[in-house]
Write a structure and sequence with these properties.
Elements lengths: L15 E2 L1 E3 L2 E3 L6 E6 L2 E10 L3 H18 L4 H16 L2 H12 L3 H21 L7 E2 L7 E8 L2 E5 L7 H12 L3 E5 L5 H13 L7 E3 L4 H10 L3 E7 L2 H14 L2 E5 L4 E5 L5 H13 L9 E7 H16 L19 H16 L3 E4 L18 E4 L6 H4 L6 E7 L1 H10 L3 E2 L1 E5 L3 H10 L4 E4 L15 E2 L11 H6 E8 L17
Parallel strand pairs: 1-5, 8-9, 8-11, 9-10, 11-12, 13-14, 13-19, 14-17, 16-17, 19-20
Antiparallel strand pairs: 2-3, 4-5, 6-7, 7-22, 15-16, 18-21
Helix pairs in contact: 1-7, 2-4, 2-6, 3-4, 4-5, 9-10
Bound molecules: NADP nicotinamide-adenine-dinucleotide phosphate.
The site of NADP nicotinamide-adenine-dinucleotide phosphate has 29 residues, from helix 7 and helix 8.
Length: about 500
C-alpha cells in the first residue's frame, strides 16, 4: 500500500511535498524545505519541497539497489501493466497537472496541457515497448547450437532533468528505464518539483513496488552531486546545459558509468525564396517563441534567402510585436514568463548587449513590468535583423524569446551557415522543391530534421537527440531508448558432449 504524499498544510494553505523513497513519501532527512514560486508572480508560492541532501540520496539509492534484485528479474508484462495504469491515472489529471505546470514553469495553459498529454502517450508507448522482443536469434556454425542475444537491464539509473519540459522529459526517461527492468533515482530541476511529484504519484498509485522509482528533490550540489558520484548508480540520463553535461561526461568516464546527455541547441530555420511565406512565418514564429523560446529545439536563427529576406523580416517583426505576453493561465496569453527573474535579466541583458554592439533590433527585448506583469519574469519577444553568423547572437544558445535573421544567397550558403555552430539538435527548411528538401536533409548537421514545419516538433515513437555538441551520440525516445537502458548478453547453448553429433567449429578468437 503506497502512503499518501506528505502534504502538511502550513500557514496560508501552502502545501509541503516530500521525497518518495522506498515506497513512501517522507520529508528530507534534515526536515528542511525549499520554496517554489511561480515565474509569473513571485508572490505566488506554489509549494514547499524537500531540500534534500546526501542522506536522502543514499537512502534512495539503497532502496533502488534493493528493489532492482526483484524488479530487474520480473516480468516485462507486469511492468507494462503498471505503465498502462499510470498512463490512465495521469490522463484523468491532465487538466489539473497542465494548470499546475503552467503555474510552476510559466508556459501557457494550452502548452501545459499538451505536455501532460504527451507524457500520458509516452507512458503508453513504453508499456507497449516493454512487450517487444528482448533480443535476436542467430544461426551458428553448429546447427544445433541455440545462439541468441538478450537485452538485460543495467541496474540503478539516475535521471536528472531540466525545468523546461518538467513532466515530459522525466516521463521519457523514467518510462523506458522502468519498462526495461531498471530502478530509478530521479532528481528533477529545482524550479519544477511539483510536476515531478505528480508524475511519481501516478506511477506509485499504479502499483510500482517500493524502491523501484525514488524521487529526491533539492539543489544540484546537495542532491545531483552525491547521486552521480554513488558507485551503485550504473547509468546517468541527463538533459540540461552543456556546462553541466561536460562535467558529468568526465565524471561518468572516470568511474565507468553509462551516460546519456541531451544538451543545448542553436537551431536554424532556413527560408528559401520559393517557400510559402505565410506558412514559414507561422512556423518560424512558433518555433522561436512558444514556451517563451525555452525549448532545446527552439528556432533561434532564421536563415533567409536574400531575395525575400526584407519582406520576410518585416512579416516577422509585425507578428512578433503582436504576440500577447502575460499570465500563462489566461487563455488569451501566447507567451508566458521566463523560468525566473535571473533568466529574464540574463536574456534582456543579452539583447541589450547585442544592441549596444550595433546589431539591428527590430522588436522587443525589454523587461515587461506593467500591470499584471510587475511581479513576473517577463521579457518582450525580440527580433534582430542582419545578424552576423559568427557573432554571439549567431552562435550561442540564449534560451529565451530571441530570434535573429541571417540573410544568405541560396541553399549552399544557408547550409554552410546553419552547420557552422557547435550544436546540431534540430533544423527546418521551408521550400516547395523536393530536390532541395532532399539536399537539405542530407547536408544538415542535426539529429532532428524538418521540412516545412518548425524546429520544435518531435514525436515520442521515434528517436530524439542531437549531433555534435547537442548530445552524446545517444538517442532518447522511440526504440532507441532500449539501447541506453539495457546491456546486451550473447548466449550460446550447446548440447552436452554425449548428444553432440559433431564438434562445433567455433574458433576462439576472443
Ligand atoms: P542545468 O542547469 O544543466 O540543469 C539540469 C539539471 O541538472 C537540473 O536538475 C539541475 O539541478 C541538475 N544539475 C545541475 N548541476 C548538476 C551537477 N553538478 N550534478 C548533477 N546534477 C546537476 O540545465 P537547465 O538550465 O535546467 O536546462 C536548460 C538547458 O537544457 C538548455 O541548455 C537546454 O537546451 C537544455 N535542454 C536540452 C534538451 C535536449 O533534449 N537536448 C531538452 C531540454 C533542455 P538544479 O535544478 O537543482 O540546478
Amino acid at each position: 500500500m503506497v502512503a499518501a504524499p506528505t502534504r502538511a498544510e502550513t500557514g496560508g494553505g501552502v502545501q509541503t511535498f516530500g521525497n518518495y523513497i522506498a515506497g513512501e513519501w517522507r520529508p528530507a532527512a534534515t526536515g528542511e524545505t525549499l520554496e517554489n514560486r511561480s515565474p509569473s508572480n513571485r508572490d505566488d508560492l506554489v509549494g514547499l519541497f524537500a531540500a534534500s541532501g546526501p542522506d536522502d540520496v543514499r537512502a534512495a539509492v539503497d532502496a533502488a539497489a534493493e528493489a532492482f534484485e526483484t524488479w530487474g528479474k520480473g516480468s516485462p508484462i507486469a511492468r507494462a501493466n503498471i505503465l498502462h495504469k499510470a498512463a490512465n491515472i495521469l490522463e484523468g489529471r491532465i487538466e489539473q497537472i497542465g494548470r499546475e505546470l503552467a503555474r510552476e514553469e510559466g508556459k501557457t495553459l494550452k502548452e501545459g496541457i499538451g505536455e501532460t498529454t504527451r507524457s500520458v502517450q509516452i507512458l503508453r508507448y513504453y508499456a507497449g515497448e516493454a512487450q517487444q522482443p528482448t533480443g535476436e536469434h542467430y544461426p551458428s556454425v553448429n546447427p544445433l547450437t541455440l545462439l541468441y542475444t538478450v537485452h538485460e537491464p543495467l541496474g540503478v539509473c539516475a535521471v536528472i532533468t531540466p525545468w523546461n519540459f518538467p513532466i515530459a522529459i522525466p516521463a521519457w526517461k523514467i518510462a523506458p528505464a522502468l519498462a526495461f527492468g531498471n530502478t530509478v533515482v530521479f532528481k528533477p530541476a529545482s524550479q519544477t518539483p511539483l510536476c515531478a511529484v505528480r508524475l511519481v504519484e501516478a506511477l506509485a498509485e499504479a502499483g510500482l513496488p517500493p524502491g523501484v522509482l525514488n524521487l529526491v528533490t533539492g539543489r544540484a550540489g546537495s542532491v545531483g552531486d552525491p547521486l552521480v558520484n554513488d558507485e551503485r548508480v550504473v547509468a546517468i540520463s541527463f538533459t540540461g546545459s552543456n556546462e553541466v553535461g561536460a562535467s558529468l561526461r568526465k565524471l561518468a568516464g572516470e568511474r565507468g558509468a553509462k551516460i546519456q546527455l541531451e544538451l543545448g541547441g542553436k537551431n536554424p530555420a532556413i527560408v528559401l525564396a520559393d517557400a510559402d511565406m505565410d506558412h514559414a512565418l507561422m512556423h518560424v514564429v512558433n518555433g522561436a517563441m512558444m514556451s517563451t523560446g525555452q525549448k532545446c529545439t527552439a528556432t533561434s536563427r532564421a536563415i533567409v534567402d536574400r531575395r525575400v529576406a526584407g519582406e520576410f523580416t518585416e512579416m516577422l517583426s509585425k507578428k512578433i510585436t503582436a504576440l500577447r505576453v502575460g499570465d500563462p493561465l489566461d487563455p488569451e496569453t501566447q507567451i508566458g514568463p521566463l523560468i525566473d527573474e535571473a533568466a529574464a535579466e540574463r536574456v534582456a541583458g543579452e539583447v541589450q548587449q547585442a544592441k549596444d554592439q550595433g546589431v539591428s533590433l527590430l522588436a522587443g527585448g525589454e523587461r515587461l513590468r506593467d500591470g499584471g506583469r510587475k511581479n513576473g519574469a517577463f521579457v518582450a519577444p525580440a527580433l534582430f535583423a542582419e545578424v552576423d553568423p559568427s557573432s554571439r547572437m549567431g552562435q550561442e544558445e540564449l534560451f529565451g524569446p530571441v530570434l535573429g535573421v541571417i540573410p544568405v544567397d541560396g541553399l549552399d550558403e544557408a547550409l554552410a551557415v546553419a552547420n557552422k555552430v557547435r550544436y546540431g539538435l534540430s533544423a527546418s527548411l521551408f521550400t516547395r522543391d523536393l530536390s532541395t528538401a532532399l539536399l537539405f536533409a542530407q547536408g544538415i548537421q542535426a539529429g532532428i530534421v524538418h521540412v516545412n514545419s518548425e524546429t520544435a516538433g518531435a514525436e515520442p515513437q521515434v528517436p530524439f537527440g542531437g549531433m555534435k555538441g547537442s548530445s552524446s551520440y545517444s538517442r532518447e525516445q522511440g526504440k532507441a531508448a532500449r539501447e541506453f537502458y539495457t546491456q546486451m548478453k550473447t548466449v550460446y547453448i550447446d548440447l552436452p558432449p554425449a548428444e553432440q553429433p559433431s564438434p562445433g567449429g567455433r574458433g576462439s578468437l576472443a
